[in-house]
Amino acid sequence: MFGKTVADVSLNAIANLGYAACRFLEPVYPGGTPSATSEVIGLKENSNRESGVVTVRSHGFNQHGRGDYAPGERIDHVDGVTVEEAERQIATRLYQNAAKAHFNLHSESQGRFGRRLIYGGHVISLARALSFNGLANAFHIAAVNGGRHIAPLFAGDTAFAWSEVVDSAALPGRADVGALPPR
């Protein structure tokens, strides 16, 4: 997107002194057609009155004309994490879940799955960790308003995650950030 601003910003300047408060909100893929718009938001004349500093705000858009998260958008997090037996046991103990489905190998070897299940709280924590790849520009995650794991997970399995934007909202007095509130 920086390159897309050269024609209307950099080529009209003596020098481009830098960039600030950059946010990357949407992916752009090979074959896509990104675009950008710029607007002057500040002027400061130098003492020689022949030059000055111009502050510009530029917005970039992907091939779909999007530059921010949109309700209904699904974000597939590309990484996976394989659950190891040792970390599963430690995490489940830290969560203080002592259900035999998670700890008692003797009883669970005779049960429905023939082995111990990974505790759901651990699965949701793994999904939250995986979400950082895809939500890297998120300023702060205040809460996770839902989560589900729809199939059993066992030590040695690999978990994957995706997120869905269910709503978005402007924050009063803040043009630089928005909110993705729970619905």
Keywords:
two-stranded antiparallel ribbon; 6 strands; 25% strand; Thiol Ester Dehydrase, Chain A; 183 residues; 4 helices; 16% helix; alpha+beta; 2 domains; two-stranded antiparallel sheet
Low-pLDDT windows of residues: none
SS field, number of helical segments: 4
What is the CATH-assigned architecture of the largest domain? Roll
Structural class: alpha+beta
CATH superfamily of the largest domain: Hotdog Thioesterase
Strand order of the largest sheet: 1-2
Produce a short descriptive summary.
The chain is α+β, with helices and mostly antiparallel strands and 183 residues long. 16% of the residues lie in helices and 25% in strands. It folds into 2 domains: 3-61, no CATH class; 74-179, Hotdog Thioesterase (Thiol Ester Dehydrase, Chain A, Roll), CATH 3.10.129.
Descriptive account of the structure:
The chain has helices spanning 85-94, 100-103, 105-108, 120-130; strands spanning 35-45, 52-61, 74-82, 158-164, 169-171, 174-179. With 183 residues, the chain is α+β, with helices and mostly antiparallel strands. The protein folds into two domains: 3-61, no CATH class; 74-179, Thiol Ester Dehydrase, Chain A. The strands form three sheets. A two-stranded antiparallel ribbon has the order 1-2. A hairpin with a 6-residue loop joins strand 1 (35-45) and strand 2. The longest helix is centred in the C-terminal third of the chain and has 11 residues, at 120-130. The chain starts with 34 loop residues before the first strand and ends with a strand.
